[in-house]
Specification:
TIM Barrel; single chain; alpha/beta; 7 strands; 7-stranded parallel sheet; 225 residues; globular; 8 helices
């Protein structure tokens, strides 16, 4: 395992969800250029399928910023992935970041799908993204509230389908550091092909524990935060 910890910055995507924050495409390009100057490894430039403005912004960041991986977020839906690729394809190192809900409550109420349907969809859509680029990230959304065995299985299938980064998100800011460390250790132990991917953590700060959770993830094997 590489000892380098890669920095994944999502200011332009998750940061823009903060109350009162809205960036113009030009502002996003300027922020991305400064992030690259800081040495950020991966810049998540936005969610191209969400709005025409975000599609424009991600496309401009991909075309104008060099030196960092430029990432676009996509639901595990073919049209999202196609749009994400259109946005980042001019980047020096483009990445598609695919996510799907994995907690029972979110699968039932947001997706109206059962576990097997979600497994099949995730695997198929990661495989679809991998047709465009070998740099594919997969996130089992709400992993900290999901059945761990289900997380292991969906991660295994998505690595087999072509995901080269596996991001474990604490989507609702629910976990404490001890739980994050245990989850990452168990993913390392129970996903037989995890060595083929870089393990990542994405935290939220609802309980003021994002920094502690991030350090716990790194201590347990995460190499992107």
């Amino acid at each position: 395992m590489s000892e380098k910890v890669y920095v994944f910055d999502t200011t332009l995507r998750d940061g823009e969800q903060s109350a009162g924050v809205a960036f113009t495409p030009s502002e996003k390009v300027e922020i991305a250029k400064q992030l690259e100057r800081l040495g950020v490894d991966i810049i998540e430039a936005g969610f191209p399928c969400s709005t025409p403005g975000d599609l424009e912004a991600v496309s401009r960041v991909a075309a104008e910023v060099r030196g960092a991986t430029i990432c676009a977020l996509a639901r595990a839906v073919a049209t999202d992935i196609d749009t994400a690729w259109e946005a980042v394809k001019t980047a020096e190192d483009p990445r598609i970041h695919v996510f799907i809900n994995t907690s029972d409550i979110q699968m039932a109420h947001q997706l109206n799908k059962d576990r097997e349907q979600v497994l099949t969809q995730a695997e198929a859509m990661v495989r679809h993204a991998a047709k465009y680029t070998s740099n594919v990230e997969f996130s089992p959304m709400d992993a900290t509230r999901a059945d761990p065995k289900f997380v292991y299985e969906i991660v295994k299938r998505c690595v087999d389908a072509g995901a080269t980064t596996i991001n474990i998100p604490d989507s609702v800011g629910y976990a404490i550091p001890a739980e994050i460390e245990e989850l990452f250790k168990m993913v390392m132990e129970n996903v037989p092909n995890i060595h083929k991917a870089r393990l990542s953590f994405h935290g939220q700060n609802d309980l003021g524990l994002c920094t502690g959770n991030t350090l716990a993830a790194v201590s347990a094997g995460a190499r992107q935060v």
